[in-house]
Amino acid sequence: MYIIAFIASLVVAAQIIATIIVGSSICPTKGCKIVEELTIISPLLLNSLGLLFFQAVFWARRLLKGKEFWGFNPLGAILLCGLAFDSTLIAYQIYVAQTFCGYCLFVFGFVLLLNLLNGLKQVILGLCIIGVILFSFSILSFVPGGSVSKMFSLKQAAYGLKSCSAPTKEIYLLFSSNCPHCQSVIKSLNQCNSCDLYLNPIDDIKKLDIDGIKLNEGFSPRINGHILAVLGIDTIPVLVSKGPDTYSIIKGEKNILNYIRHTCFTSDDVIFLDRSISTDDEEISVFSQESGECSVTVDCAESEYPD
User: Fold this and answer.
1) I need a surface site. Which of 50, 51, 120, 254 has the fewest CB within 10 A?
2) 243 with 303: CB under 8 angstroms?
3) 17 contacts: CB under 8 Å, gap ≥ 6
4) CA distance 198 to 194
5) Rounded Cα–Cα distance for residues 85 and 52 (Å)
6) What is the predicted pLDDT for the residue at 70?
């Protein structure tokens, strides 16, 4: 056990060093970046907690050798705490992020193995903890619904606002800096129109080629990425249009451009009818894409709709 804990400590320590030198963690899967954006602490701090855990297991095993004090087993308690923490992270990736961090799975494997090596009683308790956590996540809903106020963070997380005189509608564009389909949509909104445009990138950007933006000091790409994750959307661009009592979600460059032409470049309030998928939810309607999207996790190729 202490050998495995020592090896795990070396792996996590190497990740910490790589994060400090490179500026980001090293992970074999694209889902790692999404999972990192969904935590409120930095990957460096998260890995530091992991190193502390494996070192605690290492020294508890070497010094205590499984001894109990008044019926309390410190090593077993440490292992169960680590298993509960990692099981929660894995459940979150299954039911919320809907993508996996390869490095997280690797660390979870170490934690699970250490629990298995600590005896039959530990195995039974560990399986109960994993089962309860997975079951709890499976019966919860992580998709926004019930109250339109749950979308309020879009405004707070926006990079900036482009507003013209007498706006009739609020729209929020979720995009990335390396998506050509997103750039096509942004260009179409550079002229003044009847919509208040909130720009919500899912990655860090320094400048946007659009005039008249009022910058937002509270800009947070992490929140924008989180909103896409809880909606179960893994492509961009996505346009969220706020109505009096509902939100409409439009996916894909072609559908978004069509929606903007019908909604923002007219003085009349026009109902957009070109919907291929619509939900039964009274507050969120979804207009699905046919083409013109980039993956959230994979860099997009050249746009299908060049200028």
Assistant:
1) 120
2) no
3) none
4) 13
5) 13
6) 82
> Coil, strand or helix: which one is 3?
helix
Distance CA 234, CA 225 (A): 9
When mean pLDDT is compared across 82-86, 107-111, 160-164, 170-174, the lowest value belongs to 160-164
Strand partners, 161: 198, 214
How far is Cα 82 from Cα 152, in angstroms, rounded to an integer?
A: 34
Alpha carbon distance 266, 195 (integer Å):
10
**pLDDT tens-digit readout, 20-34:** 988 777 877 766 776
Assess contact for 53 and 82: CB atoms under 8 A. Answer: yes
pLDDT of residue 178: 84
Amino acid at 90: I
Instruction: Return the pLDDT at 8.
Output: 95
CA angle 248, 303, 243 (to 5 degrees): 10
Residues written for the chain: 307
Q: Which of 43-57, 73-87, 102-116, 241-255 has the lowest mean pLDDT?
A: 241-255
How far the first Cα of the chain sits from its last, in Å, is 61
Residue showing tokens 């993956």: 295
Q: Which residues partner with 200 through β-bridges?
A: 174
Domains of the chain plus CATH, in order, are 2-138 (1.20.1440), 148-295 (3.40.30.10)
Give the H or E element holding residue 287.
Answer: strand 284-287
Q: 267: which 2 tokens?
A: 């003085």
Eight-class DSSP state of 66: T
Closest CA to 89 of 128, 41, 159: 41
Rg (CA), the chain: 24
